[in-house]
Structures are given as C-alpha cells and as structure tokens.
Design a protein that fits this description.
seven-stranded parallel β-sheet; 36% helix; 682 residues; six-stranded parallel β-sheet; 20 strands; OB fold (Dihydrolipoamide Acetyltransferase, E2P)
Amino acid sequence: MRLSTPLSAVLKTTKEHLAALEGMGMRTVEDFFLYLPRAYEDLTAIQTLRTVPLDQKATFRGTIHSLKRVRIRGGKFIVTGQFTDTENSAAEAVWFNQPHVMRMLEEGDPVVLTGKLVRKGTRLQIQSPQFESAVRENLVHAGRLVPIYPEHDLINTKWLREKMALVREAIEQLKENLPAEVLEEEALMGRKEAIRALHFPEKGEEVERARQRMAFEEMYLMQCDVLRKKKEWQGETQERLKIPMDVELIRAFFQSLNFTPTGSQKIAIYEILKDMEKDRPMSRLLEGDVGSGKTLVATAVLANVIRHGGQCALMVPTEVLARQHVASIGKTLISFHTYLEHRGAEGTLRMKHPSITLLTGSLPVPEARKVKQGLSTGTIDLVIGTHALIQEQVQFRNLQLVIVDEQHRFGVAQREQLKEKGNPHFLSMTATPIPRTLALTAYGHHDLSVLLEKPGNRQPIHTKVVAPSDRSQVEKFIDHQIDEGRQIFVICPLIQESEHEEMAEVKNVEQEVKRLKEGFPHRRIAPLHGRMKPAEKEETMQLFKNRKSDILVSTSVIEVGIDVPNATIIVIEGAQRFGLAQLHQFRGRVGRGEEKSYCFLFTTTTEQARSPRLRAMEEHDSGFLLAEIDLQIRGPGELFGLRQSGIPDFRLGGLLNPELVVRARRAAQRALGMRDAQGVMG
C-alpha cells in the first residue's frame, strides 16, 4: 500500500461510501490521513459496573452472552445481551434498531463497551453502547484518546476510526514538507509524527503539539504560495517604473484641500509612493474602514504619477461607481491643477492639466474608439472604468499605475493581461476592513497599507436591530424623516419572490416596492437591482442623487461606493442573512452628510432580533472589530467571498491565531530569500 493508492483499492466498502469520501476530498490513502479529527474524547479509563456513577458515559471491558433479537412495537427490533465485566458484575446491553449487532458479536466474545449506565427498575442497563472486540491488541473506539471526525450523512466517526486503523502502517511513508531549518527554529514535530499523533494519540500534550504543527504547516504553505506570486509579479525590473516621490507636490496637494488629511492617509501615501520609486512593480493593498478616505489617498498618488508623465487606470466593479469617481476624482485633480496655476509665481512646481475619461462596456462605440486612441497615443492621463479597461484592444502608451477596487476579484488571468500592458505598479483598494491575519494570508501577495482613522468629524450612525413587532414605529419615524427632506435606502436580500419554501419569508425588491407604495402613497419609491440594464441603474441612481425619489429599494448592488449625502437612513431587511462585514458596508452608504444618520436592521423573527451577532452592530462602529467578530463566528470562507476565490477554510483555525500567521510568514520569507523591510505586519 502506497500513499498514492486509491482508497477504492484498500477499503472494503460500498460505491456510495467511496463517492462520499471523494466528495469530502479523499481519493487516496494520503488524502485520508489528511482528514483530521475535529476533537477528542478521553476514553482511556476502563471502569467497572460497580464503581461508575449512573447516567454517566463510561467504558467497560468484559464478555457478552445470551444475545437475542426481540421484536417491539412498530415492527422494529431491539438486540439484547448479558454483559459481565471483569469483576463479574452484570448489566443488560440493549441496542435499538441495530440488527447488525447479532452478526458482529458472538456468544462469549470478549468486548469493550462504551455507553451510559442507567437503572431500569431493578436492572442495570447499558443503552446502545458502542462496541468492539477486546481480542485485538489496539483498541480503536475505547481505552485511549478517541478522535472525533467531521461527519457526512453516510460516513460517521466510528466508520472513519475503523478504516483509519486499517491503513495506519502507511503513515510511515509520509514525507516531510517543511524545511529542516523551519522545523528546528519553530520547534515543530515531524509531519508523520504529527499525523500519527492526531489519528492515534497517546496523550493530550502530544495532540496539542501535533495540531500546532499542522496549523503551522497549512499557514506556512499558504504564505509560500502568496509570496511566490508576489515574487513573480515583481520579477521584472523596468527603469520606466521608477517614479520619484515629489514631496513638494504632495505638500501642495494637501494645501489645496479644504481639510487636513489624517495621519493614516499621509502614511499610506508615503508607503505607496516609496514603493513606486523602485524599478519593480508595486503590489500593495490599501485597506480601510468605510469613510476612511481611500479615494483621497488614490488621488494624491494619481497626481504624482501624472506629474511625471505616466498614465493611470482605475478599475471599479460598477459603472455607477466609475461615473462617480470620474466626477469626484476629476474635480479634485483639476482643482489641484488650478490651485498650482494660481500659485505659479510662488514656486517652480508645475503639473499638466490632467486628461481624465470614462471607459465602460456600455460606452457608445465611437466614444470608446476615441478613448482607446487617446490611451494608445498618451493624450489621456487617467482612465476610470470597469473590467473593460484591461481588454486586449485597450493599449496604453505608458501605463505606470493600475488601481483596482478589491471587489473586482482581480485574478491570475487579469494579472497576465496587465503584464502585457507593461506590468505596471498595482494598488488594490478594499472598503472591507480585513482582519490582519486574514489579509496577510488571503492577500499576502500584496504589501499592506491600512487606514485606521476617519477624516473630518463624521457623526456615528445610530444603529438599531428591529424585531417585526416594532416595524410600524420605525416606519413612522422614517416617514417623518422624509418630511424633513431626507432620503432612505431599503436593502432586500432578493429581487423577486423565491419559489423555495424556506425563502418565502425573505423580503424581495419587487414585493417591498409594492408594499411601500401602498403604505406610503405620498412618497416617491424606486427599485434598483442587478437585473436592470446599466443605463437603467445609472438613471435610477442619478434621479435618487438629484432627490427625484424618496426611497430607493435595492439589492446589495448599492453596497460599494454609492455616495448620496442626503440619504440619512438605511433599512436592511432580513439582516440576519448578511455577514457583519457586509452589514457594515451597507451602513456606510449613510452618514456622508452633516445630518444625523440611522441604520435599522430588520429581522424576520423576534428571536433573530436577539442575535448577539446583530447586536454587535449596535455596539461597534469599527469595521475592523466587526470583521474580527465575523471571522470568529462565521469562519474565513464565508467572509469576503473568499471561499469562491480559492482560499481554503482553514481546518485548524490558523487564521484566528495572529502570532501563528506572523511566524509562518516570517519563516516563508526566510525560505524564499525574501526580506520585508516593513516587517510582516506591514
């Protein structure tokens, strides 16, 4: 038997069981070993019937006899047998609806039973005990620390333990996959020793060391993978990528604003511009909470690139957001240029008038052709758009910087397309505050810049979880706010009514628009969802921004970047269906003006309204803290769409251990000969 041997060749079982194993990711013997226990039960002590307390689970050694099958009501059977322990105390063993027991046990067999001892009248009884033959040298289900595995409909822990024992000897063939120096520096167990200790443990301390070893291994291999990607991305040197950091320009940019940037913004700008002075392409992630000012950081960096004659591209997930950025970033850059012109006599600092344009899939062909021509000839300095920016026919004269909204799910194929356009500096921005441990793992191919402060004096958004019984009271308040000239976002999980019975209670845009029109006949209500054409969505959003509608009923398409300062209330229907990170993103759509803003989290049931997870939204306005809470509760796979992005659901909770992530990253950097000047925590 080899590690590569298919399980079908070594396990005597059904096709259904083999198919279930494959569905659980197990095809070979090695895969089987890597299916690790989730917990352990200490069944080391063998007890006697006389000494064990009643109603307590315990393990007994003895013999079984007088086995018989008895029919009971309903056409079912029970199997009974007389069990005598090593001190000749007796009890009745009873198995409910398990006729196979008769085939597996024989009269007088020495057995080990594990079950709860109860009193039935005058008799002692062990109900449905787990059993195994005491003839074998090594017990599998008792007399040791017993592993408990994640289960499947067909495959349970007992089945897995029995099959694991059959292939145990092949553990010796497992190869070490960590460098010897890493094992020594981190004081880790060897791989085969760790796997053996996890499946066949002898003591608790051994299990703990083995779990630490496997958690480190998983995190280390992930870190090696992301760091190799980073190394590959930065593998080519190009003299043209060296863009000097113009300190005078950035100082003037700050002076041109009517507010002072935060310390975090200044640090992030410095980190990014310092990276861009090198002849290797930057790969950096800028993360920050809602309203932390990522766009301003990006604008300062864009100004520095344009000042030195480079072209820039900003990619965002939606056309609405692209148009919004063309207006806001364009206004800031042009205002800065005007400021420099007026200042002219005072200094030698100059910047050309920036040429900024939009490119999306819905742009008319003649306009798109004109934009593409301007990019190839270099007359356009900054293009803002959607995924259309990196299509093959879009060519740049001197593309030096690409900024991408992280929601865009920028993958390997897109990176290859970027390389063909000159392998420019790359900055990814995310509005989702990502816990550091997760960022270092899922986005470890980037260096990190983090915005921890919020500019200006934004008022906190009053957040309230609302049970169904309190709906009418909140809706009266909302109506009053509209009287005061405010506007409202309403978020629904679905576009239209679902055919699935379990989704019948879930709010949808179509029904909610109808209900609100009946309940608020004097209000202007508009729907917005992903099935609408881009032009329709753009028009709906523009009408809302221009105060032509009072309530915008939408799906999660408004999660990213929409800026309507007059909207002061957001209602989230079926709030229990969303993660905290996403709820926090929704909440960030309000609170952008001077007026007090509110976020109401409506639940489907009263019980859901008592959820500690949702109550965390009332107590905390820090996206980083909420993301940590969400990570603890839901796991990394459910957060930020990472499960769909190939980031594994970490088996051993490595992401919840920041120290482990940092150690693994340092070890991976040493192994790959990489040096992180800022330290692994960015």
